[in-house]
Write a structure and sequence with these properties.
mainly alpha; two-stranded antiparallel sheet; 2 strands; transmembrane helix
Length: 236
């Protein structure tokens, strides 16, 4: 596609997406602004399929966040709209991968699997958090397996872990279909869960002690997913 046409096409798609996100209430205004910039970069540096994968994370995340919302709200853990912090924490690594490929620093396939790994990790973590908190099972700290309060940083449940696995698998299946590569299914599933586990470890070791915040934990989660996916691809 001609670069000028691609620029106009990217602007139009970005505006349409921003409008839909605004109407659906997925993000607040600052989140919409930053996500729009990210969308534009993805479209310019890659293509619509890459953006669709990112949008799927946003949609799936919004859907699971609404499951049992009344209970979450009563626990003080309901989140109706995501903010600029959520957008950067979960999407920055994926966008950086696109930029590295766009400027010739890394190869296309490396960027693709890293991108998918980062999104799979963010999705897995979101599913675990949003579904796990509804579990009647008492959470256990991932580092010591001691019982902790529901929603406490670093706490894991069987229900949440299974939900996380389903989240990363979902991204893997969608990626495998869109990019016609069956290997992306298991790469995304594994790397997503690795990122999820890293998230829980960071929560247990640092966040619950007030050393870092949730956004840094989520950012680390996507880094782990990205790196793991690239390493797994290297095994093929």
């Amino acid at each position: 596609m001609n670069i000028y046409l691609k620029f106009i096409y990217s602007i139009i798609i970005t505006i349409i997406l921003a409008y839909i996100i605004k109407k659906r209430g997925y993000l607040d205004n600052s989140g919409i602004l930053v996500s729009s910039l990210m969308s534009f970069i993805i479209l310019i540096g890659a293509n619509i399929y890459w953006l669709i994968l990112m949008v799927l994370f946003l949609v799936f995340g919004s859907i699971v966040s609404k499951i049992g919302y009344a209970k979450k709200h009563s626990m003080g853990m309901g989140e109706s709209r995501r903010t600029i912090k959520n957008v950067l924490a979960n999407g920055l690594i994926a966008v950086l991968v696109v930029l590295l490929n766009m400027f010739g620093v890394i190869e296309y396939i490396v960027a693709l699997v890293g991108y998918i790994g980062a999104i799979a990790a963010a999705t897995s973590d979101t599913f675990s958090s949003e579904i796990g908190i509804l579990s009647n099972e008492t959470p256990r700290l991932i580092t010591t397996f001691k019982k902790v309060k529901n929603g406490e940083d670093g706490g894991i449940t069987i229900k949440g872990t299974i939900a996380g696995l389903m989240g990363s698998l979902l991204i893997g299946v969608m990626a495998g279909i869109m990019f016609n590569n069956i290997n992306l299914i298991w790469i995304a599933t594994i790397s997503g869960m690795v990122g999820n586990i890293v998230d829980s470890l960071m929560g247990a070791l640092f966040e619950r002690k007030g050393i870092i915040n949730n956004e840094i934990v989520n950012f680390t989660c996507t880094i782990a997913g990205c790196i793991c996916a690239v390493l797994l691809y290297g095994l093929i």
